[in-house]
Amino acid sequence: MKLNPLSNRVVIRFEEAEEKTKGGLILTASAQEKPQVAVVIAIGPGKVTDNGALAPMTVKVGDRVIASKYAGTAVKLEGVEYTILSEDDILAVVD
Question: What DSSP assignment string belongs to 49-80?
Fold first, then answer.
């Protein structure tokens, strides 16, 4: 099964939360911060502008991005958690 986002929506998968601190302490699940860095899994075709033109997407599949902390809709498909959000909720591309 494949997710195909519509318009200017993006499907991302957040990277795993750190389980250890830099000092070597193991964190419990409740102490782990939600990661903000994610990988782009799929992108929509782009947004239709007021004049009817299609504005291309600025991110591409495989990009590592930083997304707004509470943006998007979480979905679970075949045991994997994804988030579907608007491209506007992506703050930066990580190089």
Answer: -TTSPEEPPS--TT-EEEE-TT-SEEEEETTE
What would the two tokens of residue 95 be?
A: 């190089």
- Nearest by Cα to 9 from 67, 69, 78: 67
How much is the pLDDT for 31? 46
pLDDT in tens, 6-50: 999 999 999 875 555 566 666 555 544 555 799 999 999 999 999
Cα–Cα distance, 28 to 78 (Å, whole number): 25
Q: Are strands 9-14 and 80-86 parallel, antiparallel or unpaired?
A: antiparallel
Neighbours of 15 (CB within 10 A): 12
Q: What is the pTM of this model?
A: 0.79
Name, in order, each residue with C-beta under 8 angstroms of 60's C-beta and a sequence gap of 6 or more. Answer: 40, 43
